[in-house]
């Protein structure tokens, strides 16, 4: 269940409460979106009683124009206000895996508008039918982890590993990757994984005597290896991709333990990480435990944090823990800040106290729980502008998402595959997604 479902949770946008989505500076908007941003920034306040009538003037005409052919989607790591706004207009809020399935499961929806990050919109496009269009409200909305695992960074390393290990090597690509890396997984006979099923997918590969190249999150990789009981000496992490921007030549100096370590490894981990989940430290866990809280963390956290927490799991796992907690329970949750804020609202209704793991009121810790800043690049002006421009038939091509698109989150510059390469990429990426489904649903 999405953590802010208006229909099922009872959370509503009260007129007296401000919409606190951070306003972006005007120069962060594409030229076509600046008129909408100027109107929004000129509003006297951010209260729903002010913002909603303005947003209605653009969203409702678009909904009338497209009718049932229009679908709005958002990820539940988005700022709570955007989540609620998308749901207010009948949209769907889900995790990245469920978002990827939206087009395939709803062939009647021909225009899909996503308020989340680019790799998620691209996953929808990979599985979409030929007559469906996928649009993103802000193409600069990215993921810090995926930004450290662009295809031009990972593929040279993958080619070196394939040259050395041949068919023994398979790639397991986390859902938080671009389509080109999902395609790499497909080409090597590997699969996509999520945070909840990574251990099943990796075990499937290891049972077939394969060596796993796990991309992109080194921490999910380590936590998966821990869950499977692998010898830590047979799990090798490659250097931080920020060093050399992915131009990594595998040799005795660039890899800890050199080729001997790689040859012995069961899992080789790309060195990317999530900027949100790596702020957590074991001392954060101990602080809340000492005060009677149950500590639950996402597996993108460092392994030493997971080891001392009371539990770890995907966003669905964390949300279920909130919804099933008995009245009077106290939970400290280590994940993205917007998610925890939404969970806190739910907890108040259920008599459950929720805190963010890094929000410690002791200045000695110098920490705070943060939301995903790149997801927050989607805001009310982007939603209003995208729908209005689509209705008018003048939506900028930069916001159209096709499978294989690669976008620079700083400049907005896009690299697009030609039709032949795109078709081949889609076939390989779909194969990796279908293999994941077959592995995780096998009896």
Care to describe what's here?
The N terminus is likely disordered. 43% of the residues lie in helices and 13% in strands. The chain contains 19 helices and 15 strands. The longest helix has 23 residues. α10 crosses α19. The chain has 3 domains: 175 residues, NadA-like (Rossmann fold), CATH 3.40.50; 146 residues, 3-Layer(aba) Sandwich (Rossmann fold); 80 residues, 3-Layer(aba) Sandwich (Rossmann fold). The strands form 4 sheets. It has a 5-stranded parallel sheet with strand order 6-5-7-9-8, with helices on both faces. A 4-stranded parallel sheet has the order 2-1-3-4, with helices on both faces. A 4-stranded parallel sheet has the order 11-10-12-13, with helices on both faces. The chain has 443 residues and is α/β, with parallel strands linked by helices.
Topology:
Blueprint (H helix, E strand, L loop, with lengths): L5 H4 L24 H9 L5 H19 L3 E6 L4 H9 L3 E3 L1 H5 L1 H4 L5 E5 L2 H10 L5 E4 L7 H4 L3 H15 L3 E6 L4 H9 L3 E3 L4 H10 L3 E5 L2 H11 L6 E3 L20 H7 L2 E3 L12 H8 L4 E4 L5 H6 L2 E2 L2 H10 L5 E5 L2 H14 L2 E4 L23 H13 L13 E2 L6 E2 L3 H23 L2
Task: Please identify the structural class as seen in this structure.
Answer: alpha/beta
User: Number of helical runs?
Assistant: 19
The span between the termini is 25 Å
Domains, number: 3
Gross morphology = globular
The first-level CATH class of the largest domain is given as Alpha Beta
Please give the radius of gyration in angstroms.
Answer: 22 Å
Mean pLDDT reading: 89
Portion in strands: 5-15%
- Major sheet size, sense and barrel closure: 5 strands, parallel
According to DSSP, the number of beta strands is 15
Poorly predicted regions are: 1-20
Helix content estimate: 40-55%
- Give the quaternary arrangement of the chains: single chain
Spatial order of strands in the largest sheet: 6-5-7-9-8
CATH architecture of the largest domain: 3-Layer(aba) Sandwich
CATH homologous group name of the largest domain: NadA-like
Q: Would you tell me which CATH topology of the largest domain applies?
A: Rossmann fold
């Amino acid at each position: 269940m999405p953590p802010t479902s208006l229909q099922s949770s009872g959370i509503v946008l009260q007129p007296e409460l401000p919409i606190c989505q951070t306003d972006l500076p005007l120069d962060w908007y594409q030229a076509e979106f600046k008129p909408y941003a100027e109107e929004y920034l000129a509003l006297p306040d951010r209260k729903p009683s002010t913002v909603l009538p303005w947003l209605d003037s653009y969203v409702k005409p678009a909904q009338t124009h497209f009718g049932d052919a229009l679908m709005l989607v958002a990820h539940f790591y988005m700022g709570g206000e955007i989540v609620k706004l998308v749901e207010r207009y009948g949209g769907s809020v889900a995790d990245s895996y469920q978002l990827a399935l939206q087009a395939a499961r709803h062939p009647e929806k021909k225009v899909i508008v996503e308020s989340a990050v680019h790799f998620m919109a691209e996953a929808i496009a990979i599985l979409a039918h030929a007559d469906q269009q996928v649009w993103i409200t802000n193409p600069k909305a990215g993921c810090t982890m995926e930004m450290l695992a662009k295809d031009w960074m990972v593929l040279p390393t993958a080619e070196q590993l394939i040259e050395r290990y041949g068919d023994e090597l398979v790639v397991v690509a986390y859902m938080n990757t671009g389509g080109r890396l999902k395609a790499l997984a497909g080409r090597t006979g590997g699969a996509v994984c999520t945070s909840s099923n990574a251990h099943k997918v990796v075990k499937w590969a290891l049972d077939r005597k394969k060596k796993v190249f796990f991309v992109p999150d080194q921490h999910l990789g380590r936590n998966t290896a821990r869950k499977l009981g692998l010898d830590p000496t047979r799990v090798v992490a490659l250097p931080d991709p920020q060093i050399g921007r992915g131009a990594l030549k595998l040799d005795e100096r660039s890899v800890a333990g050199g080729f001997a370590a790689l040859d012995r490894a069961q899992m080789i981990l790309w060195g990317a990480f999530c900027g949100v989940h790596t702020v957590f430290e074991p001392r954060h866990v101990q602080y809340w435990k000492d005060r009677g809280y149950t500590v639950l963390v996402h597996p993108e956290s460092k392994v030493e944090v997971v080891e001392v927490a009371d539990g770890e799991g995907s966003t669905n796992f964390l949300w279920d823990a909130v919804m099933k907690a008995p009245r009077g329970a106290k939970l400290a949750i280590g994940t993205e800040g917007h998610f925890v804020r939404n969970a806190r609202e739910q907890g108040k209704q259920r008599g459950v106290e929720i805190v963010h793991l890094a929000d410690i009121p002791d200045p000695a810790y110098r920490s705070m729980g943060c939301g995903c800043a790149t997801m927050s690049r989607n805001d009310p002006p982007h939603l209003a502008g995208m729908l209005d421009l689509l209705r008018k038939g003048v939506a900028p091509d930069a916001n159209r998402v096709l499978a294989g698109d690669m976008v620079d989150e700083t400049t907005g510059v896009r690299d697009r595959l030609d039709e032949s390469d795109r078709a081949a990429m889609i076939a390989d990426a779909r194969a990796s997604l279908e293999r994941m489904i077959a592995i995780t649903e096998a009896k």
